[in-house]
Amino acid sequence: MRCCSRSGGRFRYGFGLLRTAEATGGLLGAGIASRLGRRLGTGTALSGTAAVEGLAILGLASASNPYVAGLALAVCGAGMDATIVLLYAAAPAEGPDHPASADRAPGLVCRSRAAWV
């Protein structure tokens, strides 16, 4: 925390704003995930949101401006949360058909989720 006291605490507030941008983007991504899944199909939406997330991380790595970094974090959060929502929505469709078989093979749904991660 010594570096924060030298800069007057601006670093601490700037970091908090960047994290808030990521969380705000995450809320937006979680909110639009179901519409993306219906419109594009779950598989296409999963691939698209994962690609958006990856491109946003590349944008964050090349950002020299804190506002561009905040925008990249917001887009990354939106892509990440949309991917997670779509992934968990698709998992029951890929799991066992009968509830009794789900008790015998609990790792089946986890394996289908891990294929996307």
Radius of gyration: 18 Å
Average pLDDT works out at 79
The share of residues in extended strands comes to under 5%
Straight-line distance between termini: 35 Å
> How many DSSP helices?
6
State the helical fraction: over 70%
The counted number of beta strands is 0
Name the overall outline: elongated
Unreliable stretches: 1-5, 108-117
What is the chain-wise order of helices and strands?
Answer: HHHHHH
What does this entry look like structurally?
The protein is mainly alpha-helical and 117 residues long. The chain contains 6 helices and no strands. It has helices at 2-6, 10-40, 42-61, 66-94, 99-104, 107-114. The longest helix is centred in the N-terminal third of the chain and has 31 residues, at 10-40. It is elongated, with a radius of gyration of 18 Å.
How are the elements arranged and paired?
Blueprint: H1 2-6, H2 10-40, H3 42-61, H4 66-94, H5 99-104, H6 107-114
